[in-house]
Amino acid sequence: MYIIIAGAGVVGFHIASVLAEGKHEVTIVDPSEDVLEGIRRNLDVKTVTGNAATPKVLREAEVGRANLIIAVTNNDETNMLVCFLAKELGAAMTVARVRNPEYSGYFVTAAKSPSAARKIVRPKSLGIDLVINPEVEVADEIVNILGGFYSTSVGTFANGRVQIVEFKVEQDTIIGKPLHDIAFFEPCVVAAVVRDGKTFIPDSDEIVKQGDHIYLLASQESIDGLGDVFVHPKSPVRSVVIFGGKRVGFLIAEGLEKRGVSVKVIEQDMNRSLEIAAELKKASIIQGDATSRDFLIEQGIPSADAFVATTESDELNILCALLAKNLGVPRNLIVLNEPGHIPLAEAIGVNVAVSPLLLTASKIAHFVLHVGAISATFIGGEELQAVEFAVGSTASVVDQSLMAAGLPKVALAGAIIRDDKVIIPPRDNVVQPGDHVVIISPLSTTSSVEKLFSEK
Cα(144)–Cα(153) distance, rounded to whole angstroms? Predict the structure, then answer.
């Protein structure tokens, strides 16, 4: 695919690195020549200097032949304008990063008279195929994690019927055992192992080690039971403390409120504390500093079921999460703006670290993996992807097993979903038209996997 990225900031750079690794042709557009020079030194991509919200610059970037344009500048309005112009100039698909939630959905224009019809304006009317709000993505991820029995990362497929869940090995009874000796009480696939910062697809002889992160693929109803093999079950979350009341913290509090969870928000800024207190109906809003041990004890934080740090400082989030853990809070989750900090945070005791960059890149993968792919998610950072393909009637894989069709040896068949039946693992099952198939593979083999699902 030929992909243009408007905006060479942290998000643009990260997405470009992922796409370049996947062997896509990438051009980055940004007004700063100095920033682009730094990108050229690190990535094998083309660059164009200028404002992407102008037709001249877009034409210079060859927008007319672009399969996809991704607008991730720091300005919502600029991103929307880039997408509109790109579509008018011939780009096939567009994605805009939009932080303001008022832009993220549709809006209704005022009527000319009380009896006149009102016009509904949707993102597609503005030339935008996909609107991504990183803050919303992160908030939804954390709310979903807290809604389960385990502190895990989750990727869902087939409308939630199949999940990939991460478990950190805690049960001594399985340490030192090969995977083939572990008694799984429900059908599942070990999709990946993360060990010492490296992610790989294991074979059945792989020995489980202390501190491993195991990614299991299974049906939705099997996940909690399978988790007991690796970790000590935890009771459902009933009370959560959130440090940081800006957009992400507010959205998490709002989502947890809707699930009946007791929420306490700690925000350092007095004005922001008053703002969110006026908007949240049930949450307790406290103005204060979560780095103070005495303050946290005074506020009863040690009795909470979970602590979530969402400030704009990675270091502050890590520090406060560890302080909460030291005070006895059983689960701690943090938001990290720099994905490279995730292994460090987890190594020193953070249960779950969520990155807006990785979530945004995962969402964009849905568009990049366009050949029959209907959803995609990264596993263990960005080394592996799990992709759900819809099988067309003339796809190369039809009437064959996945192995016979030529699935790369470094890839793994996770599941076949056929009508109301979930087949895990697929083994030698023959793929049929209309099936949905979940494949786990390294990023570098994505194009080879796509060919299996291409229409003849």
Answer: 9
Per-residue pLDDT, 367: 61
Mean pLDDT of 365-394: 76
Half-sphere exposure of 124 (CA within 13 A, CB side): 3
Query: Are the C-beta atoms of residues 178 and 205 closer than 8 Å to each other?
Result: yes
Quote the CA–CA distance of 65 and 67 in Å, as a whole number.
6
Task: Tell me the residue type at 320.
Answer: C
The pTM (predicted TM-score) of the whole model is 0.66
In sequence order, which ranges of 150-269 are alpha helices (DSSP H)?
223-230, 247-258
Q: Cα(120)–Cα(137) distance, rounded to whole angstroms?
A: 25
List all residues 6 or more positions away from 75 whose beta carbon is below 8 Å from its beta carbon. none
pLDDT at 121: 45
Give whole-number Cα distances, 8 to 59, 75, 354, in Å.
18, 13, 22
Amino acid at 247: R
The total number of residues written for the chain in this structure: 456
The contacts of residue 312 (CB under 8 Å, 6+ apart) are: 244, 246, 337
Cα 1 to Cα 294: distance, rounded to the nearest angstrom: 55
Residue with tokens 């009933």: 238
Q: Which domains does the chain have, with CATH numbers?
A: 2-132 (3.40.50.720), 138-142+235-358 (3.40.50.720), 150-230 (3.30.70.1450), 391-452 (3.30.70.1450)
3-state secondary structure of 103: helix
Q: Is residue 370 packed enough to be buried (19+ CB in 10 Å), middle (13-18) or exposed (0-12)?
A: middle
